[in-house]
Amino acid sequence: MAFVYRAVASMMIAASLTSAALAGEVPSAPAVEAQSKADEIKLSLFGHRRTPNLYWRIDSSGKGEISAPQGVGYQVASPLIVSPVYRISPGLHQFDIGESGYAELRDYLTQIIDGKYDRYGLTDGECTLRNTTNSGWVELDWSGSTKGELHLSHDCLNGLGEYFHDRIVLAWHKLAHRLHGQGHSLVTIEPQPAMRAPSSLSFTKKNVWTAATTTWRMAANGKGWIEFSQDQSVPTLTLGDMFYVKAGRYPFQLDSDFHQSILRELDAYLSRAKTDGSCESELSMTDQPMVRIEWKYKAAKAASFVSDMGCPSFAERFRKVELVFAELIRNGNLGNSRIMLKK
Fold first, then answer.
1. Neighbour-count burial of 240, counting CB atoms closer than 10 A to its CB (0-12 exposed, 13-18 middle, 19+ buried)
2. What is the torsion angle, in degrees rounded to the nearest 10, for the CA atoms of residue 282, residue 286, residue 292 and residue 293?
3. Which end of the chain is more exposed for a tag (fewer CB within 10 A), N or C?
4. Which of 271, 325, 324 has its CA nearest to residue 293?
5. Residues 36, 39, 45, CA angle at the centre, nearest 5°?
């Protein structure tokens, strides 16, 4: 699920992008007579050439079909660590989620379908020259009153390319969520392991070049707070959707799903499987923000883990934690978790 990291990483990049990043030429497409046929969206995921492809298609009436490999089905990538993990049953399935369901999917993909951008300017040219890969690609096609397509490799994309790539991949979750909510048996939720909660857990992120710090504290019951030392922007799931928080402390109460998702994401450190200074990419210290995680289980000594965000494997995990808290603060609640009003 390497693309999940890229989704979160590109969201961080998106915070610094402006509408100018989307300027460019509209992809050329043959003229199509307006309303000549029902609008349709088709989304395909292609893995290695030896693996089966995946796709779903839907028209503007909300009727469509979804295909997943025989025998294994498809586990859908989730936008947030707290989101349900859906699995599509093997085979070809018909569905009907109505016009509102189609509208929801099209709106989610509108930056691609209706956006103005240079489709050839979504790749990292140096990476493309250095590497010859066959890791697969994603493809989005739309037809009807408008017509176009976007084809992106899994590798060698720049920030905007990664964002569009992951937007396409995560559209599967939008569809699966709708189908599951309507009781379609072709979508099930994958059970997740239960983790033992520390009696206390905290993490502090400090910028190397400024005095800006962000601190989280939580108890075993999911009650705690997050504090920003300065006004700042936080990541969101949508390109250009800037969200700023004021300096100060934000008390919260997490529900079990939210709390457990954090513990699963940080388990490699809480279980001591990863030790200080360990990084799968063997990077030395960088100028990226430093993060210190501290925790204590009952009848055990306090423990800690320190790394910086220059380590890709650590950054992947920690950014997912940051993102889910950012969404909690932005919305005021997420599931049954909530930001508690200050008295």
1. middle
2. -30
3. C
4. 271
5. 135
Angle at 207 between CA 19 and CA 126, to 5 degrees: 50
Phi, psi dihedral angles at 120 (to 5 degrees): -90, -5
| pLDDT tens per residue, range 246-293 | 999 999 999 999 999 999 999 989 987 766 656 754 445 578 899 999
pLDDT at 1: 42
- Alpha helices for 136-232 (secondary structure H): 159-181
Give the C-alpha separation, 164 to 145, whole Å: 22
Position 134 scores a pLDDT of 61
pLDDT tens-digit readout, 287-335: 889 999 999 998 788 999 988 888 888 899 999 999 999 999 999 999 9
Strands (E), 194-321: 200-206, 213-219, 223-228, 232-234, 243-245, 248-253, 290-296, 303-308
pTM of the model: 0.80
For residue 245, pLDDT beyond 50: yes
